[in-house]
Write a structure and sequence with these properties.
The complex is a heterotrimer of chains A (about 425), B (about 290) and C (about 290). By secondary structure, chain A is α/β, with parallel strands linked by helices. In chain A, about 40% of the residues lie in helices and about 15% in strands. Chain B is built from 14 helices and two strands. The model of chain B has no long low-confidence stretch (mean pLDDT about 90). Classes of the chains: A alpha/beta (about 425), B mainly alpha (about 290), C mainly alpha (about 290).
């Protein structure tokens, strides 16, 4: 019987069979187990993606040093989707049909991930989410598990809006790119604003490849909002901060920021420097937050990152990508199989211990216990990445459990504060 | 049958280019009007399919027919507006249509706007094992159909008229050829076929979004393939498409996505400079010299 | 609903933007407007100029100076390109329309893909003291990068207009588009004149490319939207008119700025292409064309 099974495994299309036949343990020393994904390594998300990739490769090396998964070496296959969602369906089809991977990890971020959701659902494949936001809301795939420390938009905008309320603000301006993540987040914020007594004075969407924000910032300024909520991707974040510096928002703005992706990447933080001061933005980790084993991870990460000329601090994504690997490892070791359905079952029912703490999922595959923070940038100097190593540069203002200080308002004062 | 699914996935794209190249050639090769706005017609086909699917759960056949009709109408409209303009102005006008339609679609929430739309394929596979195989078969039928249409046009009165327009539009006018009418017919048919090629795409990817659908890369491929294959005969675009699209798919799987476009671009420039009659022309020359 | 204040600021910004558009279209005005070359690769060469400026500015040289330094290089590229085009297409006149267009289209794509292969799809920027801050006049803020681009645009347009009207070669260039035979009788070699013109057009692209990367970040695929903007300006102006290019640029700049303010930035791409189609439909010879 074993010979026949081996033959089946060796012909085309066997990848699927291998995942479903639980006797793969019998081939301990033979075929490697393939884990595949596309990662945005160039394009707007590239700076984040490259850092995340190091986190994943660290896990692959660690697990292979321990003997692999169920005795099989992990082979890690990665492509570059260039931060472009148009490339991911083709790449993931290739991963499944040509490379025959056993376990799929999603690309970093919502926009490259959204296009492949129908595909993985139709094929019945497990997909390990990678810092996407509400990307499973419409498709409702039951084998999706997102490693990001947030859940829905309400949770996200809550802290931000609370800080604004405490500063006495009543009016809010929202602007966001017309793309999956930015719209998911902005719509969530719009819902909250609609159901409370906030006064929405400006609300605009802009095309994702917009590079000049002068007219938007000018219009925002003219609307005289006290809180400005922005949902944007890295390239836009840089252009927006430059524009804010050029045009100004008016002295009445108390809080600015909220959902700006990219301000967590060290290269972006370094290039923007003092332009960041005063901005209140979300993050997954800032120095001062306690996670078990994370200091050790950063030490090892920084070594590899500096050698690869990538984000040397790696706060935002790498620990969570390493955690994705840990989740796969624990699920495989517990269920003794690579069968996607059994792994999904395990992840749904169990809490996994990782370097970013215990992780458990709700029925949508999002984190049941979110732990994201809103932090305010303070005292940032230009052209210095080392300054971000220590607490005090990104001061957590929400939630109470991780709070490091009170928010400084208004925005103009916070920009100059020392 | 234990054939790798990816062959059908890639094969679909190759067949799609056979349709696109053939469609482009009807106006570009036969009549000499270079249409840069190929993506606009593909997108009209694709988005019509999306609207039909989303609103009335239309089956694939209806989506394709709907896409073809609307794309044909677009062809007619563009023709009416621009076929009076000479060469380069017509071409630039077709680029304009792409961007204008793209902007309209980006602002249209129902079809997903700039964000895009996730689509769940219906599971009616007919006699096939997977949806991709069915789409492959459908595209094969469409390819055979469009090539037959091109062949018919070539040998008909329409074809002769178009060739007369290409050689000298003024002379054709003077000798009584209804140039505007036949140009419009060619534009409509060309557009309709491109729309038909675009209509199955949303189902193929289970996703649609404007930037990829309106991508000008389609233009360089759709005009490169007939020019490389040979524009004067219906088999030229077929040869060009089969050859080039296969190379592109191999390159995509083995190397990268960009090199795709570079391959077409370089071959296009080489052929335009050295072998303007395409592969067909080279075959003819070789046959003549070996006599 | 839009305050007069805001509208006024949009118009002012539109003027700065418009002059910038005019400057990046000057090269096309010469190559296509005067010489009738189907130069769809013009925006691609513009982006190429931006990337070369990016590379050169890494040595610490100010981007404007980089642009100026690149002009002779691009002049040579322009001459070579025209020479090649002429020998291959214009000489043997059969089917030039399709083939010439396809050729330049192919060149544009090759340039774009090579840029992606070498630099990746990431956005590139340059830095200079005048990038990032603005001039404050009352409540209005004018970004210095736009003022710099405006200045260069005025400089280039004036220079070219003077050149075409005051020098022998310049007037010969203007003449060659209209009547080649007469020019030959006057002792000038039309091919050499066209070559010179194309060289100048491409050299202008170098400085325009530097301006582009000063005004905002650049990525390889930007040549596509600039096909619309540059051809819109050239068609709006009317083939062969230099000062018309400036006016046309202003119209486009102000229109885009107002649309961005009123309808939103998502409609901006349609402005240039829409104006282009409109002009082609109702008055193909442009506002000032011959």
């Amino acid at each position: 019987m074993d010979k026949i099974r081996r033959k089946i495994l060796e012909t085309g299309g066997a990848g699927l069979l291998a995942a479903t036949v639980p006797t793969s343990m019998a081939f301990a020393q033979s075929a490697p187990v393939k884990i595949g994904m596309s990662m945005p390594q160039t394009g707007g998300l590239g700076a984040g993606g490259q850092a995340a990739l190091i986190g994943l490769r660290m896990w692959v090396d660690d697990v292979n040093a321990k003997g692999g998964l169920l005795g099989r070496k992990v082979e890690f296959i990665v492509y570059d989707d260039q931060s472009n969602g148009a490339n991911t369906p083709g790449i993931y089809t290739k991963l499944l049909d040509v490379d025959k991977v056993d376990i799929l990890i999603a690309p970093y971020a919502t926009n490259p991930t959204a296009p492949i959701m129908p595909l993985v659902k139709e094929r019945g494949k497990l997909l390990m989410g990678n810092f996407s936001f509400q990307v499973n809301a419409k498709v409702q795939h039951d084998m999706w598990f997102n490693n990001a420390p947030w859940n829905d938009a309400k949770g996200w905008s809550e802290g931000f809006l609370e800080a604004g309320k405490n500063a006495g603000a009543k009016s809010i301006a929202i602007f966001a790119a017309d793309a999956e993540f930015q719209q998911n987040l902005a719509n969530g914020c719009r819902e909250v604003v609609k159901n409370t007594d906030w006064n929405l004075v400006y609300d605009q969407n802009y095309p994702g490849n917009n590079t000049d924000f002068s007219s938007i910032i000018r219009s925002v300024r003219a609307a005289r909002p006290e809180v400005v909520f922005v949902a944007c991707y890295p390239n836009e974040a840089v252009a927006i901060m430059r524009s804010v510096n050029e045009i100004g928002l008016g002295s009445q703005v108390q809080i600015f920021g909220g959902g700006m992706v990219g301000l967590q990447f060290t290269p972006v933080m370094q290039s923007l420097g003092s332009l960041l001061n005063g901005v209140v933005n979300y993050n997954s980790y800032v120095p001062g937050m306690k996670f078990p084993g994370i200091e050790d991870f950063f030490k090892r990460y920084t070594e590899r990152a500096i050698a690869a000329k990538v984000d040397p601090l790696g706060f935002y994504l790498p620990p969570f990508n390493y955690a994705t690997g840990q989740m796969i490892e624990q699920a495989v070791n517990a269920t003794k199989t690579f069968d996607n359905k059994r792994l999904a079952d395990y992840l749904r029912r169990n809490e996994i211990n990782t370097i970013v703490g215990p992780i458990s999922f709700d029925k949508n595959g999002e984190r049941s216990k979110p732990r994201m923070v809103q932090a305010q940038f303070r005292n940032i100097k230009d052209n210095d990445w080392e300054q971000f190593k220590n607490p005090g540069k990104q001061v957590v203002i929400w939630p109470a459990a991780d709070k490091q200080g009170d928010v400084i308002t208004p925005f103009d004062r916070a920009r100059k504060a020392t | 049958m234990n054939v790798n699914e990816y062959i059908f996935f890639a094969g679909f794209v190759i067949l799609q280019f056979v349709v696109l190249a053939t469609a482009w050639n009807i106006l570009g090769g036969y009549a000499g009007y270079v249409n840069f706005g190929v993506p606009a017609f593909i997108a009209v086909g694709a988005y019509t399919a999306v609207v039909l699917f989303k609103s009335i759960s239309a089956p694939l056949v209806v989506q394709i027919i709907g896409g073809g009709i609307l794309a044909g109408l677009l062809g007619l409209t563009v023709g009416l507006l621009t076929l009076k303009l000479r060469g380069i102005f017509f071409s630039i006008a077709t680029v304009a249509v792409v961007f204008i339609l793209e902007t309209v679609v980006m602002n249209w929430r129902y079809v997903g706007g700039a964000t895009g739309l996730q689509l769940t394929r219906p599971q009616d596979l007919w006699i096939f094992d997977t949806y991709t195989r069915m789409l492959f078969f459908v595209m094969a039928v469409l390819a055979i159909g469009s090539v037959s249409i091109a062949r018919y046009i070539q040998d008909s009165f329409l074809g002769r008229g178009l060739r007369a327009v290409r050689d000298s539009e003024e002379a054709a006018e003077c000798s009584g050829v209804p140039t505007l009418k036949i140009k419009l017919i060619a534009c409509t048919i060309s557009g309709a076929l491109m729309g038909i090629a675009g209509a199955p795409m949303p189902m193929y990817l289970s996703y649609i979004e404007p930037t990829a659908t309106f991508n000008l890369n389609y233009s360089i491929s759709a005009l490169g393939m007939p020019i490389i294959g040979g524009t004067s005969h219906w088999i030229g675009p077929v040869i060009g498409a089969l050859l080039l699209a296969t190379i592109q798919q191999v390159v995509t799987v083995t190397v990268s996505n960009e090199l795709n476009v570079l391959v077409v671009g370089v071959l296009l420039v080489l052929f335009v400079v050295l072998a303007p009659d395409g592969i067909l022309g080279l075959i003819k020359k070789w046959k003549q010299s070996s006599k | 609903m839009i305050s007069l204040d805001l509208l006024f600021e949009a118009v002012l910004f539109g003027i700065l933007l418009g002059c910038f558009y005019a400057a990046v279209s000057l090269g096309l005005s010469v190559a296509f407007g005067l010489l009738d070359v189907p130069y769809v690769a013009h925006p691609a060469l513009l982006i190429l100029g931006s990337y070369f400026t990016f590379l050169l500015s890494k040595t610490g040289i100010d981007p404007i100076i980089c642009g100026l330094l690149l002009m002779p290089v691009f002049y040579v590229i322009g001459i070579a390109l025209y020479r090649f085009y002429y020998e291959t297409f214009e000489r043997r006149s059969s089917d030039t329309g399709v083939r010439g267009l396809a050729f330049f289209f192919g060149i544009a794509f090759i340039i774009e893909v090579c840029l992606i292969l070498v630099f990746g799809v990431d956005q590139r920027t340059v830095s200079a003291t005048y990038i990032g801050s603005s001039l404050e006049i009352g409540e209005y803020r004018f970004p210095y990068r736009m003022l710099v681009a405006f200045g260069i645009a005025i400089f280039l347009t004036t220079l070219l207009t003077l050149y075409f009207s005051k020098t022998f070669n310049g007037r010969a260039i203007k003449a060659v588009g209209q009547d080649e035979g007469a020019l030959r009788l006057m002792g000038a070699n039309p091919v050499k004149i066209k070559q010179l013109a194309f060289g100048i057009a491409t050299a202008v692209n170098a400085l325009a490319g530097a301006m582009l990367i000063i005004v905002g970040p650049v990525e390889p695929a930007m040549d596509r939207i600039y096909i619309g903007r540059t051809f819109c300006v050239v068609v709006l102006a009317g083939l062969g008119s230099m000062s018309g290019t400036l006016v046309a640029g202003l119209i486009l700049g102000i229109a885009e700025s107002i649309v961005m303010m009123t309808l939103g930035a998502s409609w901006a791409p349609a402005v240039s292409f829409g104006l282009l189609l409109l002009m082609l439909g109702i008055r193909p010879q442009g506002l000032f064309g011959r």
